[in-house]
Amino acid sequence: MTAMRRFLANGWLSAYAFLYVVFLYLPVIFLPIFSVNTAATPKFPLSGFTLKWYEDLPRTPALLDAAWNSLVVGVSAAILSTVLGILAARSITRYRYPGRRAINGLIMAPLVLPEIIVAISLLLVILQLGLSLSLFTVVLGHVLVSIPYSMTVLTAGFEGFDRSLEEASADLGESAFGTFRRVTLPMVAPAIISSLLVCFTISLDEFLIAFFLTGTEATLPIYIWGQLRFASKLPGVLALGTLLLAASFLLMTVAEILRRHAAKRTQNEGGLYA
C-alpha cells in the first residue's frame, strides 16, 4: 500500500512538473515559429516560410543603436555586479561578524521585492540626487537587481574553498592580496565567469528598471516595447525576440555548466570533500 502511494505521488509530481513546463514554455515555442512566417500576423495555418524578417534586422538603425546600448549596459552591469558579488560572497563565506545574516538578506532583497516598486524607488532616489536619466542610471539599476544572482553563484564557489591553501600561501611569504589573486581567484574563476554571464543575461532581458531609468537612449527591451504599438513591426519584433531568447538560453546554459564545474573543482581541489 505504501509502495502504491509513493508510486501515485511520484506520478502526480511528474505530471505536475510536465504540465508546469508546458504552461511556462509553450507560448515561447510559438515565437520562433511565427518569426519565419511570411504573413505579418501570427496565426495558423502558416502562410509560408521566410527569413525576410531576420534579414531586415541589420538594416534598422534604431535597432542597432538599441543593441549597442544593451551591450554597453549589460557588460558594465555584469562587471560591476560580479566585482561587488566577489567582495560580498568572500566576506559572508569567510568571516563571522554581527549582522552577517541581515546583510545577506538585504543584498538578496531585490529577488523578493516587486520589481516595479524597486524601479520607482530607484527613480525617486536618482531624481532627488539630481542625476539625469541615462544609460548610467540604467546600469546602476541593473547592478542592484543583478547582485543577488551574482552572490548566489559566487557564494557556491567560495563556500567549498579550503582555507588551508591560503594559509600555505601565506606561510610561503605571499601577501594577502597576492594570495587572493594567485590562489583564491583561479580556484573560483569558473564561478566568476558564470556570474558575468548570468548578470549580463539578466541585464539584457530586463525591462522595468530600464523603462523607468532610461533617458533618450533605449535598450533592446525598450525598443521592442516601442515597436509593439505598430502592427507592421510585429514580425520584426518576433524575429528579434527569437534571437534574444536563443542568446539568453545559450548564455544561461554556459553559465550553469561553468557553475557546476566550479563546484566540482572546489570539491576536488581543496573543498570540503577533498
Automatic annotation (TrEMBL):
Which Pfam family is an annotated match for this chain, by its short name?
BPD_transp_1
Location in the cell: Cell membrane
Sorted alphabetically, the keyword list is: Cell membrane, Membrane, Transmembrane, Transmembrane helix, Transport
Q: What sections of the protein cross the membrane?
A: 12-34, 66-90, 102-127, 234-258
The UniProt record lists the ABC transmembrane type-1 domain at 67-255
The GO biological-process annotations, alphabetized, read as: transmembrane transport
Record flagged with keyword Protein biosynthesis: no
The secretion signal range is: none
Write down the Gene3D superfamilies for this protein, in alphabetical order.
MetI-like
| Gene Ontology CC terms, in alphabetical order | plasma membrane
Q: How does it sit in the membrane?
A: Multi-pass membrane protein
Q: Say which family it is in.
A: Belongs to the binding-protein-dependent transport system permease family. CysTW subfamily.
The entry's protein name is Binding-protein-dependent transport systems inner membrane component
Organism classification, top ranks?
Answer: Bacteria, Pseudomonadati, Pseudomonadota, Alphaproteobacteria, Hyphomicrobiales
